[in-house]
Amino acid sequence: MKVFSDTEFTGLHQKTTLISIGFIAENGATFYAECGDYDHLQVDDWINDNVISNLEFHGKIKGKGWCNSSTLNAGTKNAVTEVYGNRELVAECLKEWLEQFDKVEVWSDCLAYDWVLFNELWGHAFNIPKNVNYIPFDICTLFNIAGIDPDINREEFAGCVGGAQKHNALWDARIIKICYGLLISKIG
Q: What number of other Cβ atoms are within 10 A of residue 75's Cβ?
């Protein structure tokens, strides 16, 4: 199963911390989580204005955390999973969500930070769920293969301008999925 993923984090540097993570699978099942234990001292004005402001639960949820899963369509386990809490809770709920698939192929966009943060949820790469391929895939490469500048505006390419907010991890994962489909059609 291909799953399309995005993360939001506290900055483009080695000690960045995970703020949120979103996944959408080929079958439409979604996972969205926000970490309450990111390093708040690393949040600058840009992160605050463009990432924190687009979080679903930040400042609205009190308590240690929660994981909420619901099935919307027959045959789709955990069609929607939402999590708010520390990284340990996010990892536990994400592992459970990923278990609904026999094999998982992760696709992302400019995934250098995303993949490192994904692996850190379980301590390191050797601890990621066994059904997840240890090799991630990047739509930037697909853009390049298709002869399209990889720096293209993803929302415009996907035809989704004016939708939800860019830099919301689930929104961005949805855009990645749409771009993937368009690029595969173009490449043949």
A: 7
User: What is the Cα–Cα distance from 26 to 143, expressed in whole angstroms?
Assistant: 19
Q: Which residues pair with 3 in a beta bridge?
A: 25, 106
pTM: 0.92
Q: Which residues contact 95 (CB under 8 A, 6 or more apart)?
A: 122, 129
Q: Which two tokens stand for residue 83?
A: 């999590």
Structure tokens at 152: 């293209």
The pLDDT profile of the chain, 188 residues, written as one tens digit per residue, is 999 999 999 999 999 999 999 999 999 999 999 999 999 999 999 999 999 998 988 776 666 788 887 765 555 556 889 999 999 999 999 999 999 999 999 999 999 999 999 999 999 999 999 999 999 999 999 999 999 999 999 999 999 876 667 889 999 999 999 999 999 999 98
CA dist list (Å): 163 to 37, 40, 136: 28, 28, 27
Phi, psi of 22, rounded to the nearest 5 degrees: -135, 145
CA-closest candidate to residue 173, choices 101, 104, 107, 123: 107
Range 2-187 has CATH code 1.10.3720.10: no
- Domain range annotation of the chain: 2-187
